[in-house]
Amino acid sequence: MLKLPMLSLLVSCLWTTGAVAERFEIFQLPDADPPAYLRVDLQTGNVSRCAEQDGTWRCTKVEDSTQELETTTQAKIRRLENRIAVLEARAHTPPGVEEMEQALDMSEMVMRRFFGMVQDIKKDMSQDK
User: What is the DSSP string of 2-61?
Assistant: First the structure.
């Protein structure tokens, strides 16, 4: 287990040089077994996971899913904006003749049904007397 103190010494030496201290920030992963670190590139935002593999310390880039999420979110926003534009355009368009006929037919049907119910109630009331 001599390698872990060597890594700590190497990191602390590099850290004090200034270039690494300004570009990278390193965090120890507390529950990692074997020990591992996260290296954050402060200039690019890239994150790497550093761990010992086959006796050598290696850093592998951690995939960033925020770009994919942002692209998906932007596409959804564009679809919703287009749908809103279509609905707003419909709201400002006066109804056509066919739509007016449908509305009048529906109103007529409702009124006939209502008056039919009134007639039935009147018949029932006159029979009860």
Answer: -HHHHHHHHHHHHHHTSHHHHHEEEEEETT-SS-EEEEEETTT--EEEEEEETTEEEEEE
pLDDT in tens, 13-72: 555 555 556 888 988 888 888 889 999 999 988 899 999 888 898 999 988 777 788 888
* Residues in Cβ contact with 61 at an 8 Å cutoff, skipping those fewer than 6 apart: 46, 47, 48
CB 43 within 8 A of CB 19: no
Question: Rounded distance, CA 106 to CA 129, Å?
Answer: 35
Range of the domain at 81: 65-93
Amino acid at residue number 64: D
- How many structural domains does the chain have? 2
